[in-house]
Write a structure and sequence with these properties.
Distance between the termini: 101 Å
Order of helices and strands: HHHEEHHHEEEEEHEHEHEHHEEHEHEHH
Structural class: alpha/beta
Oligomer: single chain
Strand order of the largest sheet: 7-8-9-10-11-12-13-14
Amino acid sequence: MSKINKNILRSALLLLYVTIIALVIYAFGAVYSYLNTGADRSKMLHTEVKQIDQYLPEITWQPLTNEGRPIDTQTLTAIENDYLDGWFVKHVAYKTNTTIGIDDYYTESARQNLFNIIAINSENNTTVVGTTLEHHPTLEFFSEDGQLVVLTDNDVIEYKQIFKDNELITEITEKSSYKVTLLLEDGFWRVRHMVKIKSEPYTASQVSQPISTTTINGINYYPQATPWAMFGDNFDADIIASDFELIQSTGLNSIRVFVPYEDFGKSDVNQHKLEQLITLLDLAETANLKVMVTLFDFYGDYSVLDWTLTQRHAKTIINAIKDHEALAVWDIKNEPNLDFESRGTTLVTAWLAYMIDFVKSQDPNHAITIGWSNAESATILKEKLDLVSFHYYEDLEALDTTFKALKTKIKNKPIVITEYGLSSYSGLWNPFGNSEDDQAEYHKTIQTVFSEHDIQFMSWTLYDFDKIPKEVVGRLPWRQNAQKHFGFIDEKGIRKPSFLFITKKKPSVQH
C-alpha cells in the first residue's frame, strides 16, 4: 500500500472517530437536558395517561389562601393534572386488579395500600369499576421548597359498580371528602397520602322550577342530500332554511335533530360544528319552529370510565345553546334500549340516569326525554324525565291499546311518539312491500288515532334518501332500500300522497 493511500485511510478513520465521539456527546447532552428541563411524563414513564382522551371530571378549585409559599398557575395546573391522573390510574387498577401505573403516580408508602386492596380483590375475584365526576379541592399548604402540597378535596362525586365473580352485586354513588398530600419527585407530583375523611350516599338534587313546554306536532329532520351527515363540509343553511319554511307551512311546529357524539369531537367538541348547530337553531327560530335536540347519536360505549368524557361533551353543547329561543327539549339518547343486550341494561340505565341529572344541572329550564325504541321501555326512568317519548313502528291496530296502557302507568307527564312511519319501498328486495298509497293510508289512519287521544308526535321523515350510511341499518340491501323510502317527499323532490297527512291539519300548500 502506498504512503498516500495510508494517509487517506488514517484521515478517514480519524474523521469517523471524531464523528462518533461528537454524536455520543450530543446524545448525552440531549438526554441530560431532557431530564433536567422537565420531560413529558407520558413519554418518560411506561404508563401513558392521555387525560384529554380518557378522564375529564369536573374540577373546581377554591380561592387560594394556602399557608406556606405562594403558588403560581403553572404549578397548580401541574398538580391538578398529576392528581387527576393518579385517580384515573387507580380506577384502572381496581377495574383490572393490576398494578400497572401505580408506581408512576403514587409514592412508595402510598402505593402499598393500593397493592394490598388489589391483592384482596384478586383473591376474592372482586372488581370495582368506578369513576369520579366532580372534585372541589382546596389547597391547604405549599411548602417553601416547593416539594410538598396538602389539599382537601371536598364533595368528590364517586360512582362505583362492584362485581363478584363477574356478577354485579351493587352500585354506589357517594359524595366524599379526602385529605391528600402530594410530593414532587422526578419533576412530577405523586400522591403520598390520600385519606377519606367523610363519605355519604349521594343523590342529585331535583330541580323543582317550572319548565316551559310546547305541544309537539313535528318531524325528524335531515336535509335530503346529507342524511345522518348534516353538519360539516356539506352544511347548507339555504337548503335548511327552505326546508324549515316548507315544514312550517304544513302546520307542523317542531323538528327533531341529532348531534352525533364522535362526529362532533366527543369530549373536545368541534366548535365549527357547534356553530352550525346554532345556525340551525337560528333558522328554526326564523321559521317559528321549536327544536328537540337529540344528544349522543351513534354513541354506544357507556363504560364508567367514559362518563367524564360524555359529561364534558354534554356540558359544552348544552351551555352553548341552552338560552336559544328555538330550543324546546333535550333528548338524551336515541333508542338506548337497543344497547341493553350488548352493553348490559344496568350499565346503560345507570349512564342515562346520571346524564339526566347532569343535563338538568346545566339547564333546568328545558324538558328532558329519552327516545326509547318502543313503548315497552318507555316507563324506564320515567320519574326523572319531564316528558316520556317512544318510537312506534308496530301494527297500527295495536296503537290505541298500547297508548292507553302506557297512560295508566304515566299519568302526570306528557307522552310523545317521536318516531313513526311506513316505508313505501316495494322493489326487488321486497316485492311485497308497501306502495305510496299504502303509506298515505298509514299516515291518514295514525293521524286519526293521534287526534282521538290528543297524542303529540314527530314523524320519520321529511324526505326519501338516495343513500343510507351502513351504520344506520347495516349493509343488507333489503334494509337499506326500505330505510330510503320513509319520506313524504321522494328522491326527485315530488310530494308523495302521504304528504297530505303529514299533520292533523291538511296543509294549505298545493301540489
